[in-house]
């Protein structure tokens, strides 16, 4: 891989700050322009994409790279979600980047502050001009013969599916028009596209929805001008979003009812964590922030491990904590005692117990029941009770999606992610030169994504210095069992199980929800292992790469015969020169 374009210097067309000169429209009238080639294409300019761009720029200065972002803003989740009270539900020291520790005093931060942090990181890292906004990657076709991806992207038109407007009350934004199609090639594709659809959230069919005369709002598309002051609001849901939006709504609404089918575990966390406060007292700020990151990462890990080891004790402790916060006689057993074990689903966080304070103040009530139908003036429950409402908020969740919905194929064969194992939680079995950022479910997203980035930049540098243009995770062990990628029992995870890849039962196909273990695995182990096959064009047949190797059971001997493992690098192959 080199920083040089393969087919001559691309021509400038319509260059603006947001559309750098090397953006090459290839479909349309007239003679096609030369196809642009990138060493690394990063998809998405959210928390992960900005972090990835920083790592690639810093550690692979030779790499010609760009970030394609479907929307017209940096920040991803933290720009899209604008509902009242939007905040992190994990601590910012671990949600922040390792290379730029969070400096704010608040451990739990507001959405706008997180958005600013991501934007500021992009600015400080000097990667803003690498981002091409309104560029949605729609397909990526790997060619083994060329050892590169053929990428197709569309330039989203204003009002397209990019999800930039915050003024709609629907959970499904439909398929708006898209603009010009672009084609380019890339040696390595890194998907930092998050894990859910931006154009729609999950919205169950509620009988009688059309009868309701008030506003129905999905938190993913919060209308900027929604007036809920002095109104009766019903929030349907019991996940992190419900626990975030309810206390904020309660500040202005007449009353907020949390309507849930079943309860979740909830824990109160201080907005300013005592550990980080202590670290700041004894150390200069940069050292204190780094120490806080480690302390809070380890604390979260220890709590998770203890929860899995002693579920009943943890359950009692969590429910006991809620009971202490709520008034005497509050029906904690019905409303705050989940039917599952702690961490079978994500734990909900309430900073400084804000939700409990709102319940104590009589501004919020909790109802655990099933919806029979929406009525003109509220929601009728199976129990026969009707909850009056002026506004209904459907905090019913996200619709999960792998790799930004990009259609991936290898040598003409479609890749169904659900049939593939994940390699170290970062690459896909049988898919060359492809990585994805997918964070922890039991800790901050960024902890894992930082490790994935560091792993990938090492991989890129090793490939370059070894003269290897292709690396493919290959499983030759038929005894590796396939399990769901995300080991949560939450509805949004179960609904998406047939769209997500699988984790395996053995190294390196497992997905550890464990930062310390991954730290050792991704940062400290050599890149080369038996399951990562390196090759150059001509050294591995497309048939071997096209399907999941575990299914076709390609014999280990054929892999060894056809490929070069980095540790046994053929000097002649290396002399081919890097890609
Ligand atoms: C309301 C909410 C609160 C959360 N709170 C926390 C928390 O406190 N702690 C935590 O660890 N996690 C949290 N998460 C998870 C959260 O999504 C991650 O923390 C993190 O923001 C994900 O960053 P990302 O960059 O990987 O993905 P995203 O933030 O989703 O960004 C992905 C970007 O990729 C772009 N994109 C997608 N597909 C394409 C495509 N095909 N072509 C081009 N661009 C594309 C999108 O437009 C977007 O800008 C929360 C999630 C939600 C929804």
CATH architecture title of the largest domain: 3-Layer(bba) Sandwich
CA radius of gyration is 25 Å
Shape: globular
Please report the total strand number as a whole number.
25
Main sheet specs: 9 strands, mixed
In DSSP terms (H or I, runs of 4 or more residues), the helix count works out at 17
As for the CATH topology of the largest domain, it is FAD/NAD(P)-binding domain
Share of residues in strands? 15-25%
CATH C-level label of the largest domain: Alpha Beta
- Quickly count the domains: 2
The small molecules bound here are: flavin-adenine dinucleotide
Mean pLDDT: 85
> In CATH, what is the homologous superfamily of the largest domain?
FAD/NAD(P)-binding domain
In helices, the fraction of residues equals 25-40%
Classify the secondary structure makeup into a structural class: alpha/beta
| Gap from first CA to last CA | 3 Å
- In terms of per-residue confidence, which ranges show pLDDT below 50 for 5 or more consecutive residues? 1-29, 159-177, 540-579
Please tag this protein with its features:
20% strand; binds flavin-adenine dinucleotide; FAD/NAD(P)-binding domain; disordered C terminus; 2 domains; five-stranded parallel beta sheet; alpha/beta; disordered N terminus
Structure explained in plain terms:
The chain is α/β, with parallel strands linked by helices and 579 residues long. Helix content is 28%, strand content 20%. Strands 1, 2, 3, 4, 5, 6, 17, 18 and 21 form a nine-stranded mixed beta sheet that branches. The chain has a five-stranded parallel beta sheet with strand order 7-16-8-9-12. Strands 13-14-15 form a three-stranded antiparallel beta sheet, with no helix packed on it. Helix 1 runs parallel beside helix 11 (445-466) and helix 11 runs parallel beside helix 13 (515-524). It is globular and about 70 Å long. The model is unreliable at 1-29, 159-177 and 540-579 (pLDDT under 50). The structure holds flavin-adenine dinucleotide.
């Amino acid at each position: 891989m080199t920083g040089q374009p393969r087919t001559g210097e691309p021509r400038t067309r319509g260059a603006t700050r947001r559309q750098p000169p090397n953006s090459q429209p290839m479909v349309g009238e007239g003679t096609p322009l030369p196809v642009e080639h990138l060493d690394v294409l990063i998809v998405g300019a959210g928390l992960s994409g900005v972090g990835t761009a920083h790592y690639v720029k810093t550690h692979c200065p030779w790499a010609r790279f760009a970030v394609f972002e479907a929307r017209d803003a940096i920040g991803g989740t933290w720009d899209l979600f604008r509902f009242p009270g939007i905040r992190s539900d994990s601590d910012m020291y671990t949600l922040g980047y390792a290379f730029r520790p969070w400096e704010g005093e608040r451990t739990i931060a507001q959405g706008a502050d997180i958005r600013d942090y991501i934007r500021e990181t992009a600015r400080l890292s000097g990667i803003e001009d690498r981002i091409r906004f309104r560029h949605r990657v729609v397909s990526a076709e790997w060619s083994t013969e060329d050892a590169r991806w053929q990428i197709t992207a569309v330039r989203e038109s204003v009002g397209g599916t990019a999800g930039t407007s915050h003024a709609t009350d629907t959970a499904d934004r439909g398929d708006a028009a898209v603009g010009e199609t672009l084609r380019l090639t890339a040696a390595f594709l890194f998907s930092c596209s998050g894990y859910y659809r931006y154009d729609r959230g999950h919205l169950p069919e509620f009988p009688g929805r059309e009868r309701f005369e008030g506003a129905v709002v999905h938190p993913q598309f919060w209308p900027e001008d929604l007036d809920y002051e002095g109104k009766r609001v019903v929030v349907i849901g019991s996940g992190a979003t419900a626990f975030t939006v309810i206390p904020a709504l309660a500040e202005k609404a007449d009353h907020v009812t949390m309507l849930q089918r079943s309860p979740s575990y909830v824990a109160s966390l201080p907005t300013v964590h005592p550990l980080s406060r202590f670290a700041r007292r004894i150390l200069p700020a940069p050292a204190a922030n780094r120490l806080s990151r480690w302390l809070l990462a380890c604390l979260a890990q220890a709590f998770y491990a203890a929860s899995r080891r002693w579920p009943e004790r943890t359950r009692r402790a969590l429910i006991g904590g809620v009971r202490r916060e709520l008034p005497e006689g509050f029906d904690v057993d019905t409303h705050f005692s989940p039917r599952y074990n702690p961490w079978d689903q994500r734990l909900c966080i309430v900073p400084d117990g804000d939700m409990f304070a709102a319940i104590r103040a009589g501004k919020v009530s909790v109802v655990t029941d099933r919806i029979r139908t929406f009525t003109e003036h509220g929601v009728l429950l199976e129990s026969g009770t009707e909850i009056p409402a002026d506004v209904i908020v459907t905090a019913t969740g996200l619709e999960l999606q792998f790799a930004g919905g990009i259609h991936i194929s290898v040598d003409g064969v479609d890749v169904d992610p659900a049939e593939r194992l994940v390699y170290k939680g970062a690459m896909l079995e049988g898919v060359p030169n492809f990585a994805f950022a997918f964070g922890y479910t039991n800790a901050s997203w960024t902890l894992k994504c930082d490790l994935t980035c560091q792993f990938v930049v090492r991989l890129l540098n090793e490939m370059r210095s070894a003269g290897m243009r292709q690396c493919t995770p290959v499983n030759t062990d038929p005894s590796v069992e396939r399990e769901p990628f995300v080991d949560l029992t939450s509805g949004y995870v179960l609904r998406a199980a047939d769209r997500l890849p699988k984790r395996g039962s053995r190294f390196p196909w497992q997905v550890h929800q464990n930062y310390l273990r991954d730290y050792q695995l991704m940062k400290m182990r050599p890149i080369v292992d038996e399951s990562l096959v390196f090759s150059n064009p001509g050294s591995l047949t497309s048939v071997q790469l096209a399907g999941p190797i575990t299914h076709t059971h390609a014999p280990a001997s054929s892999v060894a015969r056809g490929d070069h493992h980095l540790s046994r690098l053929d000097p002649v192959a290396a002399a081919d020169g890097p890609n």
